[in-house]
Design goal:
Length: 281
């Protein structure tokens, strides 16, 4: 009974132990299961990205309220990951706990991260192509496409340090959402645990590497579309689209955001709770 705050909620110490055992299980998953579940998570987060854009592209409300609504809608992604079951790279930064307790090796940790990251990328790109060929970007006289283009441009327009720090902040909140979901016993518990941290990270404009695997490639596909460009100019002015390139996607966004996500989830959440509850002096 000491591991419970009440009949339904696991204590922080029990959650830390659960995160450790979950990490051990994830690290020993087969290649097929790890990659397949990684692909699923990529599709789930990409669906959330599409849903986010659908909600905000024509929102007739103030900017802050639009961000709030967008953040709530984006929560769909982690809800699907946690409840339906999938392997998300940013969430798997918690495997650091099992490494610190020596239940798994660094080699197993890196194996999981690499396979899941690749799977997430494949899943995200798959949904990018499906949404593109579904012609969602036609909606609102191409406003959907123009807003998608603006999101992608903004994400490659910041310097390395700013982008990395936004990655740290984002995954601190994402991993806390997963952490809180571990304490719950019911689907309702998990839903409520996920929504607020995810809404906070999205509404605040922080950076999530897997989400960006959807937003930026979709923007790259739309960059040369004349109809989308014309609507983009009407909505946002004659902004320079030249920074939106594949190389900037990798070097100015994906790399610093991934590094920040590892620091935020692995160190600021996982390592801190390991130190408090599992570290043997």
């Amino acid at each position: 009974m000491e591991n419970k705050l009440n009949i339904d909620l696991l204590s922080p110490e029990a959650v830390t132990a659960k995160a450790e055992s979950t990490g051990v299980k994830k690290a020993h998953n087969t290649l097929r299961a790890t990659v397949t579940l990684g692909i699923l998570a990529g599709t789930f987060i990409a669906f959330a990205g599409e849903f986010y854009t659908m909600v905000i592209f024509d929102a007739r409300v103030g900017s802050s309220l639009a961000k709030l609504l967008g953040g709530i809608s984006f929560s769909l992604g982690l809800i699907l990951v946690v409840i339906a079951g999938a392997e998300l790279f940013t969430g798997n930064t918690l495997l650091i706990i099992a490494v610190m307790t020596k239940k798994i090796t660094w080699r197993l940790l890196l194996r999981n991260w690499v396979l899941v990251y690749i799977g997430n990328f494949i899943g995200s790109l798959f949904i990018v192509l499906l949404v593109y060929y579904s012609e969602q970007w036609h909606l609102g006289n191409f406003s959907f496409g123009a807003v998608t283009l603006k999101i992608a441009l903004d994400k490659v327009s910041n310097d390395f340090i700013t982008t990395m720090i936004r990655g740290i902040l984002a995954n601190t909140l994402v991993v806390m959402a997963i952490w809180l979901s571990y304490s719950g016993r019911t689907v309702t518990d998990k839903l409520l645990a996920i929504i607020f941290p995810i809404t906070a990270f999205v509404a605040s404009g922080f950076e999530h590497s897997i989400a960006n695997m959807y937003f930026i490639p979709f923007g790259l596909l739309l960059k040369s579309n004349i109809q989308v460009q014309n609507t983009f100019v009407k909505l946002f002015g004659n902004l320079d689209l030249s920074p939106l390139t594949a190389s900037n996607f990798v070097l100015k966004n994906l790399f610093p955001v991934t590094l920040g996500n590892i620091i935020g989830g692995g160190l600021l959440v996982g390592a801190v709770y390991w130190f408090v509850y599992l570290h043997k002096k």
